[in-house]
Amino acid sequence: MIAYVGLPVLALVLWDLAIVVAYKVLHWEWVGSRHVPLTLYGSAIGVIVGFRNNSAYGRWWEARTLWGAIVNNSRSFARQVTATLRAPAQDADLLRETQRWLVHHQIAYVHALRRQLRGEDPLAVLPGILEPDEIETLRGEKNVALTLQQRMGSRLRDCRDRNWVDSIEWQAMDGNLDDLADAQGGTERIKNTPMPKQYDYFPQLFVQIYCLVLPVGLVETLGWFTPLGSTLVGFMFLALDKIGRDLEDPFDNTVFDVPMTAICKTIEINLRQLLGETELPDPEKPIHGVLW
Question: Mind giving me the DSSP string for 177-232?
């Protein structure tokens, strides 16, 4: 809690003490006024900060909903690949290799998308999922996740050309890729569209002004106890303002992120199991109470 809003609260305590000393010791009575409408100011600022926090939480929840869609479509795609593709007996080995290729590329897709959204190198997590030569061909791509999806679409078209899947089944799998692309576009929209500047600046300014006015309006009534009441109320407003700032960027690679690492690890485990693999990664575990 100290690390979260410690410095602003410390500054508020020092300001409260300065007002009390000026009023009670130096007898500067002009620094205090019980006529300051703190209740009116507090109500108005509470509405403004609450509205901003609702908008920030809406961004965070939409991001989590989009990743829920990625989970569902990844499972559906892998299930269709492993259960729908059929080949003649002489192509059985090629079929299994194609199924493995498609499912591993879907695993690589979610990990690459996660890294892209967090501003990290997407190729760093692909060893062990894709072959080294294929990873090398992705170097220099501006949108690795999109490139992986395009290659999956091309491989599905080859399966249709080989008559391993009929047109209706191919359309269903291609539709899953479309849904994944829609979800990716939604996450990129949130990532690349920050909150409007006025949402960022004015609520913080109003909270800071209110915290400065608090001891002025309370010192005549509370006297030496002014820092207790002023700091407590100011702390709540400062914390509310900080909460909104933390939630508005759900892909910022902080403890307040959507837990994309855990989500991607779950997808990888599920998809590898659909392939019949037994060497599975361990599920992501919380670190100090935070699931990444």
Answer: HHHHHHHHHHHHHHHH-PPPHHHHHHHHHHHHHHHHHHHHHHHHHHGGGHHHHHHH
Note the pLDDT tens digit of each residue in 62-88: 999 999 999 999 999 999 999 988 888
Determine if the pTM surpasses 0.70: yes
Query: What CA–CA distances, in Å, run from 175 to 73, 87, 159?
Result: 9, 22, 15
What is the Cα–Cα distance from 110 to 234, expressed in whole angstroms? 42
Nearest alpha-carbon partner for 248 in 191, 181, 203:
191
Residue positions counted in the chain: 292
Q: What is d(CA 262, CA 57) in angstroms, rounded to the nearest whole number?
A: 20
Alpha-carbon separation of residue 148 from 82, 111, 122, 142 (angstroms): 19, 11, 11, 12
The first and second tokens of residue 75, run together, are 């499972």
How far is Cα 70 from Cα 48, in angstroms, rounded to an integer? 34
